[in-house]
Design brief:
372 residues, mainly beta, Neuraminidase, four-stranded antiparallel sheet, 24 strands, 40% strand, globular
Length: 372
Amino acid sequence: MFPKRREMDPAIWSRLPEDLLDHVLSFLPPKMLLKLRSTCKHFNSLLFSPSFLSKTKCSSSAFSCFILLSHPQCYDQYPLYDSTHGTWRRLSLPYSLLLPSAATLLSSSKGLLCFSLPSSSSFLVCNLVTLSSRTIDFPTYPFDFELLTLVSTPSGYKIFMLFAKSFPNYAFVYDSTDQSWSKFDIDGFPSMILSQSSHQEGVFYKGSLYFTTPEPFSIVRFDLENGIWETPNDANDHMTMMLPHELTFFRLVNDGEESNKLYLIGGVGRNGISTTMKLWELGCGGNWIEVERVPEMMCRKFMSVCYHNYDHVYCFWHQGMICVCCYTWPEILYYNVARRTWHWLPSCPSLPHKWSCGFSLNYLAAGASGSN
């Protein structure tokens, strides 16, 4: 005869340390974690914690990180590069997330995809983990937005965009937690200069979005909480971020909150022509410390690809790699931070050669996406 099963004493289990509870939960399969998310706020927040997901079965291939390639001619299927296995795959959106042909992929962040739906004057944010989506109406009509950036947060996501072709100028921020838009007056800030960097999204770093400006080169940031624009190289700023000399172009990259580092990659030369490309890391006090330079042959190839039109250059972080891309070319030049080596990513075999421009590459981490 089996002994009577004792019930768990709530007085004991309710005092279980949070880190120990998280360790127990890390052994659950992904489907069970998705079911638990609706039981309490803490369980829901675990699905958006990169540190927790790295310990769970969610770090398997089912929740891998990919590089997603999009093109205006391809609106329902997207080539994916699996850096774990070094192969290209194809993502077909499920029936529940089918998009109209006019939908345009604007931004991505940790498993979330943000599309523009011009015909309905709205955005569509898709969550590839939960296979859910949300339609978000434009904050005003007509709405000609620029520099749209999707940022995942522990409790959801935010969408930033600039509305500079009006007077006065405005910045809009959408917060998924209360499903509302906030409008910030940016009159007096050189937004028209900033808006010329059309292919580079803002880089999220320590609560703010950082942007690069065309010549005269500078770095500006937007505080997502209070809606204030700042220039970090002001004399009264504690972090000056004085730029390296003889830059012909530059872009910023954040390491995806792995160690909260900020990198700068840029061309160095004279008269607007780059003769080399270098990588810097932001050090203490805002000083840029040179890390590496791109090997000469790789630099020549990249410059020939973008035809020295540096407006087409953009960068992003992906699993320990700093990826440098060109809007007119589907290949990726990347720097492996741990190995301190430069490489070219293999070309996508399914891409038609006639598509000569309009490429956009996005970091897609399907295991750490914000909620819809």
